[in-house]
Amino acid sequence: MADRRRVNIPFGPQHPALKEPESFLLTLGGEKILAAGVRLGYNHRGIEKACEERTYIQDLYLVERVCGICSHSHSTCFVQAVEEIAGLQIPKRAVYLRTLIAELERIHSHLLWLGVAGHEVGFDTLLMYTWRDREVVMDLLAALTGNRVNYGMNTIGGVRRDITPEQAGQILTAMDVLEERTRYYIGVVTEETTLINRLSNVGKLSYDDAVHLGAVGPTARASGVDRDVRRDDPYAAYEDVSFKVITDTHCDVYGRAVVRVLELMEAYSIVRQLLKKLPDGPVTVKAPRKIPAGEAVGRYEAPRGENVHYVKANGTDKPERVKVRAPTLANVQVVAHMLKDGYLADMPIVVAAIDPCFSCTDRLIAVAHAEPRPPETLTWDELRTYGIDWYRKRGVDFTHLNRTFGNGAT
Amino acid sequence: MDDVLFQLTALFHVLVFPGFVFLVLVALFAEWVDRMLYARLQNRIGPPWFQPFADFLKLVAKQEIVPELADKGMFKLTPLVALASVVTALLYIPLWSHDALFAFPGDVIVVMYLLTIPTVTFFLGGWYSRSMFSMIGAARTLMQLFAYEIPLFLSILAPALLANTWSLTAMSHYYAAHPAYAAFNVIGFCVALVALLGKLERVPFDSPEAETEIVAGAFTEYSGRRLAFFRLAISIEMIVGASLLAAVFLPFGLGLGSVAGFVLYLVKVFAIVAVLTLMRTLFARLRIDQMINFCWKIGAPVAFVQLLIDLIAKGALGV
Amino acid sequence: MADEQTLQVQLVEKFPFLHEKVRIQRVRRMYAAVPAENIAEVFDHVVKEMKFSILCAITGLDQGETLGLQYHLARVSGEILTLLISVPRQQPVVRSVTPYFPAADVYEREVVDLLGFQVQGLVPGNRYPLPDGWPAGQYPLRKDWKADSLKQGGGKKNEVADG
Question: pTM of this prediction?
Answer without folding.
Answer: 0.81
